[in-house]
């Protein structure tokens, strides 16, 4: 018996004038991950972070803290010794910091609103499907109730049975008294008024 050769493990290198020194690519194995120049991030994690920041920016706590920081900033740069001041009267650095905060806050708030719109759209679609199911169930129950009413129209009612029993009692009394009542005189079946 000839020894089997393991073709999956042996790689043939090209020979001749067209041979290259590049290693042969294995098609039966996944490629190793490539190095990326830009960092990767999870868009959902970034969206959740932006929603947290947007929620915080929309609270009274943020406004109070921002007001305290601005008051301390202005007081420090107005009344501290000249050597310790880092932003003199026109407070250009404060203006820059507030502009920077606003330039980051606006896109984060818009991103959070877009995510909320997506959630609202999904919820509205689910509500619409639930309403369609409720309407279908209501229509089914309505048809069933109508079928029951039609079916009950054929059932003997208490008033009809009472009138039939009274007629039979009258017939029996007439027979006892000697009067003969012919069946043609007695009405058979239900009247429309008895329903």
TrEMBL record:
Residue stretches of biased makeup (Low complexity): 13-22
Region Disordered, residue ranges: 1-33
Full protein name: DUF1003 domain-containing protein
Signal peptide range in chain numbering: none
Entry annotated with the keyword Membrane: yes
Organism: Streptomyces bobili
Basic and acidic residues composition bias: residue spans: 1-12
Any Pfam family matching the protein: DUF1003
Residues that span the membrane, as ranges: 62-79, 91-111
Domain of life: Bacteria
Lineage: Bacteria, Bacillati, Actinomycetota, Actinomycetes, Kitasatosporales
Keywords tagged on the record: Membrane, Transmembrane, Transmembrane helix
Entry annotated with the keyword Ligase: no
